[in-house]
Design a protein that fits this description.
This protein is an alpha+beta fold. A hairpin with a 3-residue loop joins β2 and β3. The protein starts with a strand and ends with a helix.
């Protein structure tokens, strides 16, 4: 009998360690079952694309062997990056490795490049949700101004910033398979020196603009992430136009402003984006520390 121990859990699932080699995931409510079922399909596709994702041993939502749906996966060794908090250079190494993994994942496009997958996996991926274009920044800024979150000068400055960043956005971004919650707490690494061992928690996967994948990583880690991505993909600029930096910054800024009206503290939550000012402070710190080219030119 394997020892059952609680592990850091997310919003959707309770997580337990089964001995030293396996992980048990149980949805917190039935409403999260769809994410677990999605994960069963996406992880298989990611592994076949060469991505370091955990191997699924069992997925059962039938209720015949247990009263609750569950998934058992192999345990990815190491500690998540949010808890490990390695020195800056080691963190950049992990992000470069992660970028290479993302490039492999993003080769799975919405309308093609799925032919190597078995029919069941191909069908499962075809049912994944598609991410929309997101909020209109002009309307977002206007709303924040009207509600008193911004002063007129700041609103004008932000609108001008978005207008300049818009040049980096493609008219119709490619729809690729994205992890959907690529954040430090979902990157597993071993210490001394920190080395990526796997990417976990795939329940938010969807078809989306690949630039959205970089928006849950602190901006301080994005340059290294893009370095690895470019090394693996061989694409210094996105094939559908603009620049990676401009597109990523657009999403960071939109999501940071979108958090302002929901300025309720969330003590105890692990994501770096949980504090209401987390994203805005991340932007401030990044640009105050002389970011590498071409980031400074985007501010």
């Amino acid at each position: 009998m394997r020892e059952l121990r609680p592990a850091p859990s997310g919003v959707a699932n309770r997580v337990f360690l089964l001995g030293d080699e396996l992980v048990l995931r149980i949805p917190r409510t039935r409403s999260f079952l769809a994410d677990l079922a999605k994960e069963a399909v996406v992880v298989l596709a990611a592994r076949r694309a060469g991505v370091r994702a955990p191997d699924i041993r069992t997925f059962d939502d039938s209720g015949t062997t247990a009263d609750v749906p569950y998934m058992v996966l192999t345990r990815v060794p190491g500690t998540d990056l949010a808890r490990l908090r390695p020195p800056a250079e080691e963190a950049r190494r992990v992000y470069r490795e992660t970028g290479r993994e993302l490039a492999r994942l993003h080769r799975l496009h919405r309308l093609h490049r799925l032919h190597r997958l078995d029919p069941a996996t191909r069908h499962g991926l075809s049912t994944l949700p598609e991410d929309g274009a997101g909020p209109d920044p002009r309307a977002l800024v206007t709303g924040l101004l009207t509600e008193g979150w911004l002063d007129p000068e700041a609103a004008s400055w932000l609108t001008d910033w978005f207008d300049r960043l818009r040049a980096h956005l493609p008219a119709e971004p490619a729809q690729v398979l994205v992890h959907g919650d690529l954040a430090p707490q979902n990157l597993m690494a071993t210490p001394h020196p920190a080395t990526l061992t796997g990417i976990v928690d795939w329940g938010d996967a969807q078809w989306a603009d690949p630039a959205t994948e970089f928006a849950k990583i602190p901006l301080s880690g994005v340059p290294a992430l893009l370095d690895g991505y470019r090394q693996e993909s061989g694409e210094p600029t996105p094939p559908d136009g603009g620049s990676w930096e401009g597109r990523v910054l657009w999403h960071h800024l939109v999501w940071a402003l979108g958090r302002l009206p929901d300025a309720v503290p969330r003590p105890g939550e692990r994501p770096w984006t949980a504090p209401p000012a987390g994203r805005l402070l991340g932007l401030l710190r990044f640009f105050a520390q002389s970011p590498p080219a071409p980031w400074a030119d985007l501010a």
